[in-house]
């Protein structure tokens, strides 16, 4: 007479085991290493500083110190415009990438390109990453280039508009932490020193952690 009860107990135990394994697998997937590619220009490439002081290296160290399991890849090339970044997108951002920090547009401004030209290239990058379900943090730029305020405002509006259109995380100005502080800039008055890069990492860290959280919970 005890057999039905034993069978029921065995079935319940088996179901619980299956559910526990499924939960464990999900936890392991969520806690795996998040691969972040930093696609940008000289600001992230490490121009004028030792390789160990480049933004992606410093960012990975800071995230690791906060208990994050990440790999941050440096895909910055000095002199790149948004169009140049688009041209090398498939090579720079491979299919095993979980998230992208997109930092392009500074050289477009320095060259005096129209904001719509930059917008077209950035939109194409964002559209490609969206189709691949890759999480994105889009960075704008303030740069002290000698252009009229209307030009800079048009770029600022372009960056924020793209962030809204593609529903990506947004950091309004990658260079905000050093652009107004001569002590944090190299003699060229444009690029950050190692200390300037540390300042960027400190300021942008909360946004990057939000990026990681999105990447861990995205649907593939």
**Helix content class:** 40-55%
- Which structural class do you get from the secondary structure elements? alpha/beta
Report the sheet with the most strands, covering strand number, pairing sense and barrel closure: 5 strands, parallel
H/E element string? HEHHEHHEHHEHEH
Query: Order of strands across the widest beta sheet?
Result: 2-1-3-4-5
> Stretches where pLDDT falls below 50 for ≥5 residues?
18-29
Tally of DSSP β-strands? 5
Mean pLDDT: 88
% residues in beta strands: 5-15%
- The span between the termini is 49 Å
The coarse overall form would be globular
User: What is the alpha-carbon Rg in Å?
Assistant: 22 Å
Oligomerization status of the protein chains: single chain
Work out the helix count: 9
Notes on the structure:
With 220 residues, the chain is of the alpha/beta class. The chain has helices at residues 3-30, 42-45, 55-65, 82-87, 89-92, 106-110, 115-131, 149-166, 194-217, and strands at residues 34-40, 70-76, 99-103, 135-139, 169-171. The protein has a 5-stranded parallel beta sheet with strand order 2-1-3-4-5, sandwiched between helices. α3 packs across α9 and α7 runs parallel beside α8 (149-166). The model is unreliable at 18-29 (pLDDT under 50).
């Amino acid at each position: 007479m005890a057999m039905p009860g034993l069978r029921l107990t065995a079935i319940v135990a088996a179901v619980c085991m299956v559910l526990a394994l499924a939960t464990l697998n999900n936890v392991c997937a969520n806690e795996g290493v998040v691969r972040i590619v930093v696609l940008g220009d000289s600001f992230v490439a490490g121009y004028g500083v030792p390789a160990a002081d480049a933004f992606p290296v410093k960012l990975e160290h800071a995230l690791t110190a906060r208990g994050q399991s990440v790999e941050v890849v440096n895909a910055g090339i000095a002199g790149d415009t948004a169009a140049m970044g688009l041209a090398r997108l498939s090579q720079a951002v491979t299919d095993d990438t979980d998230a992208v920090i997109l930092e392009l547009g500074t050289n477009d401004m320095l060259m005096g390109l129209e904001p719509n030209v930059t917008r077209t290239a950035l939109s194409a990058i964002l559209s490609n990453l969206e189709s691949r379900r890759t999480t994105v943090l889009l960075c704008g730029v303030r740069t002290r280039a000698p252009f009229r305020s209307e030009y800079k405002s048009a770029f600022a509006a372009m960056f924020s508009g793209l962030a809204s259109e593609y529903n990506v995380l947004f950091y309004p100005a990658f260079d905000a932490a050093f652009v107004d502080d001569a002590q944090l800039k190299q003699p060229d008055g444009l690029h950050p020193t190692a200390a300037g890069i540390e300042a960027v990492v400190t300021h942008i860290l909360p946004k990057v952690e939000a990026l990681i959280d999105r990447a861990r919970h995205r649907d593939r």
